[in-house]
Amino acid sequence: xxxxxxxxxxxxxxxxxxxxxxxxxxxxxxxxxxxxxxxxxxxxxxxxxxxxxxxxxxxxxxxxxxxxxxxxxxxxxxxxxxxxxxxxxxxxxxxxxxxxxxxxxxxxxxxxxxxxxxxxxxxxxxxxxxxxxxxxxxxxxxxxxxxxxxxxxxxxxxxxxxxxxxxxxxxxxxxxxxxxxxxxxxxxxxxxxxxxxxxxxxxxxxxxxxxxxxxxxxxxxxxxxxxxxxxxxxxxxxxxx
Length: 241
Description:
- This protein is α/β, with parallel strands linked by helices.
- The chain has one domain (12-240): TIM Barrel (Alpha-Beta Barrel).
- 31% of the residues lie in helices and 16% in strands.
- The chain has helices at 25-37, 76-86, 104-110, 144-149, 174-179, 184-191, 202-205, 215-229, 236-240, and strands at 12-19, 42-46, 58-62, 92-93, 115-116, 130-132, 135-137, 140-143, 166-172.
- The protein has a 5-stranded parallel β-sheet.
- Helix 3 (104-110) links the parallel strand 4 (92-93) and strand 5 (115-116).
């Protein structure tokens, strides 16, 4: 996959992206606070309506659920149409669980979407945005879930190959940032018996937040580390141009 549209990326380009995954507003707000404190830009792939406070470094994109029993719509057309009504300026998508088939491309194009990131290529160098019949496609390079499942320390933002050439699309989840998830087993045990995600409140979650190093720490470190390897922050929309 080419870096940009005209060849391999000359150096690393890390981009912070978030899948809201039906997290309540206060969890998204925690991410926005960290980004704002560090002057960082990011792309949020949204499952529903959120308030982004008018922050100009935030791009809103769509996170459609095309799987059976989706609450967003009965078919791809209705799913995309509903999300686009919430974010009419959105030009990008990443589908829930990276679901993709070739019939989705014309649906996205009909709704003015210009790029899609519904694929994953962990740790690969020389990634970029590839043109595919009018739609630019990119791949998630690393995520908070991968970092934890590989047993890497969330106190440090050091994904393997971070400084290698190529586009590094990072996929982060507000629920893990807000809870400061330290490992998958802790997350499963903490969430067991709780109400559904959208019904959680700050009062319920605050006592559960992990006090040591976790994904909240990891995001804070990412905001500090990324400007050391590149010139500032970019959203995916800015890279598409």
